[in-house]
Amino acid sequence: MKWKGGKMSGKLEVITGCMFSGKTEELLRRIERAKIAKRKVLLLKPEIDTRYSKEEVVTHYGRSYPCRRIPLDITLEILKEALGSELDDAEVVGFDEAHFFAPTFVEVCTSLADQGKRVIVAGLDLDFRGEPFGCMPQLFALADEVLKLTAICVKCGKPATRTQRLINGKPAPRKAPVVVVGGLDIYEARCRDCWEAPK
User: Fold this and answer.
1) Domain presence at residue 171
2) I need a labelling partner for 97 at 20 to 30 A (CA). Which of 52, 155, 177, 180 fits?
3) Rounded to 5 degrees, what angle do the CA atoms 65, 68, 74 make?
4) 172 assigned to some structural domain
5) Active-site residue, from 13, 26, 97, 188
6) What does 2-63 look like in DSSP terms, one character per residue?
7) How far is residue 50's CA from residue 105's CA, in Å, rounded to a whole number?
8) What kind and span of H or E run contains 142?
9) Is residue 196 among the annotated active site residues?
10) Residue 93 in domain
11) CATH for 133
């Protein structure tokens, strides 16, 4: 971040890709580097994400960092009320699993960046049906930087860009709920050729 006219200029960074592509790993890498640089850091995640821990953002491979959980229908007002000076003091604000948040989340991110904060967002680009996920497309358009990661296809080993949700070993039907929090137990990373479109 650079100083501009007496205040720090903000930035919106978006990290995206399919499941198991390393989005949260990259988010934590950036957060930890900001901490090393003596920046005041705040890491947040959706209240529904309790897979590995309620008090930490945890990667599928066990790396973790302390966080606060926030509601899905987040607004800047709700965030300020919940976090107070913790939010005011933060120079770097990270959000994991951003695809779960309501459309109001976009305004939260842009407002924080406009206030001079470095905002780092990680989330899926596509849902299990292969369609743009939640507010992520809007965030891509408004971001100062977008990093799209790939995983390894579990079927053929090529770069994976899709997330396959499985029920009893078979692709979940199209009518299944979009939001289902899970990990290796119900999701696989697949390339375009090996991904099976839900029916």
Assistant:
1) no
2) 155
3) 135
4) no
5) 97
6) -EETTEE--EEEEEEESTTSSHHHHHHHHHHHHHHTT--EEEEEETT--SS-SSEEE-TTS-
7) 20
8) helix 136-142
9) no
10) yes
11) 3.40.50.300
Burial readout 91-116 (b: 16 or more C-beta within 10 A, e: otherwise): bbbbbbbbbbbeeebbebbbebbeee
pLDDT tens, N- to C-terminus, the chain (199 residues): 444 555 568 999 999 999 999 999 999 999 999 999 999 999 999 999 877 788 989 887 778 899 999 999 999 999 999 999 999 999 999 999 999 999 999 999 999 999 999 999 999 999 999 999 999 999 999 999 999 999 999 999 999 999 999 999 899 999 999 988 878 789 999 999 999 999 9
Domain tally, the chain: 1
Beta strands at 41-46 and 68-70: parallel, antiparallel or unpaired: parallel
pTM for the full model?
0.92
Per-residue model confidence (pLDDT) at position 1: 46
The enclosing H or E element of 170 equals strand 170-171
- Tell me what pLDDT residue 5 has: 52
25, 176, 56, 49: which is closest to 100 by C-alpha?
Answer: 49
158, part of any domain: no
Q: Are 63 and 32 in contact (CB under 8 A)?
A: no
Q: Which residues contact 86 (CB under 8 A, 6 or more apart)?
A: 42, 68
